[in-house]
Design goal:
CATH class: Alpha Beta
GO molecular function, one term: NADH dehydrogenase (ubiquinone) activity
Number of helices: 2
Largest sheet: 4 strands, mixed
Number of strands: 6
Organism: Ferrimicrobium acidiphilum DSM 19497
CATH architecture: 2-Layer Sandwich
Enzyme class: oxidoreductase
Structural class: alpha/beta
Shape: globular
Helix content: 10-25%
Number of domains: 1
EC number: 1.6.99.5
Distance between the termini: 44 Å
Keywords: Oxidoreductase
Radius of gyration: 17 Å
Mean pLDDT: 89
Amino acid sequence: MSRILSDVIILERSDYLSTVEARHQAGYIYLADITCVDYLNDQTRAMTNDLKLERFELVVNLRSFAPPAILRLRVQIPEQNPVAPSIFALYPGAEAMEREVYDLFGIRFENHPDLTRILLPEDWEGHPLRKDYGVGRVPVQFKEVKRNR
């Protein structure tokens, strides 16, 4: 029976890309997920060091298979400049995940090959998973999917 170890690294945006590159070289070859959390009115989350809490936290889950391990990166993203470097060059699967975070939270990814909306129509205004996004607005109308049958 194998035991999967799980670690969490909380870091500033400026350390994000170099940390991902180092972990990729160390064997974390699988990107499981990228998402975001909006802490608009909750600045009480646990921090392990003296990092400045930011409104947004980019959450990146990486996996290593030999040895089996999971790594979660919690990257602080400021409200005034919600930008992070893209990790597409290391993990091509990040393409859709980063677009989803951009579409729903408004976090922009530098050097992304196609940073356009992925779920919402191109003319949609705002980012509906932000906690300050207006309640009672027009319901979300997702893009039509063209199917080849």
